[in-house]
Amino acid sequence: MPHSKAALSFEGRRRLVRRCQHRPIAHVAAEAAVSRQCLSKWFARWREHGDEGLHDRTSRPRRSPTATPPQVVEQVIALRKRKWSARRIHLELSAQGVRIAVCTISRILVRHGLNRLRHLDVDGEPLRAPGKITARYPGHMTHLDVKKVGRIPDGGGWRVHGRGSAQAKAADRAKTRGARTGYTYLHSALDGFSRLAYTEAHDDEKAVTAIGFLFRARVFFAAHGITRFTRIVTDNGSCYRASAFTRAVHSFAATHQRIKAFTPKHNGKVERYQQTYTVEVLYAAAYESEQQRRDRLQVWQVHYNYHRPHTAAGDQPPASRLPAGVTNLMLSYT
User: Fold this and answer.
1) In angstroms, rounded to a whole number, what is the distance separating the alpha carbons of residues 167 and 165?
2) What is the β-pairing status of strands 253-258 and 229-234?
3) Whole-number pLDDT of residue 69
4) What is the average per-residue pLDDT within 212-226?
5) In DSSP terms, which residues pair with 150 in a beta bridge?
6) Any idea where the Integrase catalytic domain is (predicted)?
7) Which one, of 329, 189, 180, 330, lies nearest residue 270 by Cα?
8) Residue 332 binned pLDDT confidence (cut-offs 50, 70, 90)
């Protein structure tokens, strides 16, 4: 949608058609750097409908002769509520003399939220309604995840020296010979109520590493007044599926919840936190070593928890939502 001061916005069109009342359309169009045909169209609409005709019209066609009739759509919905498949609905309507393709039936079902049978109750009505995953108190839901990023070689990578530099070419030759720079695994834990976060950089994502991180994160949260842990939410990574990790969770929390496979939005709070530090830290500067980037991440974590405003916390830092109110740094800290 154009902004209010654009050349051919509603206000701009009204100024141009007013000029056309006393001057040739071609002259006004040349001054406004628009075609005569375009200005003639707006002038004709203005003469027929007044100022209301200068608004943008919908691009939807006025007529859709090949659209599925409403009564057929109602039949499809009624048959679907009997838990019939799209193929069976197609056969039933074909027997009644109604010509409709299976793909058309599928689109109708998607449009009305009836495309998945497991989302329908016994009466055929939609069972699943979209909703927000909301933590009711600190420690209600603690989200864990691991982000894998490429390790920066000593002296800096191609972001420092350029892709065609001698260092970049040497790194490519080393890769050809089988050398590997490796990865850094960023383990993160985030409180779903306050958005308070804790992150550590490790060289692997094994279960023993995840368990050690879990207990250190527990100590960090306890220092901020979060001592009651109800639900630990993770994805289905190998370290989180380990029985040892589940036992570690049950040693102090009530439930270990693994989200539905291939549904990262169920762990979206920590996923969004990872996106934030990726943009603001990981790729925000050219680092000369991996340790330099890790140190920068630790400094940024302090900024995130105590100083950076967060929308979910009412434009306040995450630590401000906790009863402990830990603020151990001045605002001028960098």
Assistant:
1) 5
2) parallel
3) 93
4) 96
5) 183
6) 149-325
7) 189
8) very low
Report the alpha-carbon distance of residue 55 to residue 126 in Å, rounded.
38
SS3 305: helix
The pLDDT value recorded for residue 166 is 79
> Which residue from 313, 319, 316, 282 is spatially nearest to 297, judged by alpha carbons?
282
DSSP secondary structure letter of residue 54: G
25 SS3 class: helix
Spatial contact of 302 and 333, defined as CB atoms under 8 Å apart: yes
In this structure, whether the domain defined by 141-321 belongs to CATH 3.40.30.10 is answered with no
Measured between alpha carbons, how far is 241 from 246 in angstroms, rounded to an integer?
A: 7
Residues 134-157: tens digit of each pLDDT: 999 999 999 999 999 999 888 887
Report residue 166 as tokens.
């001698």
Residue-wise burial string across 185-203, b where 16 or more C-beta atoms lie within 10 A, e elsewhere: bbbbbbbbbbbbbbbbbee
Q: What share of the chain is helix, strand, coil (3-state, %, to 5)?
A: 45, 10, 40
Most distant CA pair in the chain: distance in Å? 85
How does DSSP assign 162-217, residue by residue? -TTSHHHHHHHHHHHTT----EEEEEEEEETTT--EEEEEES---HHHHHHHHHHH
What is the mean pLDDT of the segment spanning 309-319? 93
> Could you give the CA distance from residue 327 to residue 307 in angstroms, rounded to a whole number?
9
Residue 209 clears pLDDT 80, i.e. is over it: yes
| Higher pLDDT, residue 298 or 128 | 298
User: What is the residue extent of each domain of the chain?
Assistant: 10-54, 70-119, 141-321
Strands of 197-202's sheet in order across: 197-202, 183-191, 141-150, 229-234, 253-258
pLDDT of residue 302: 95
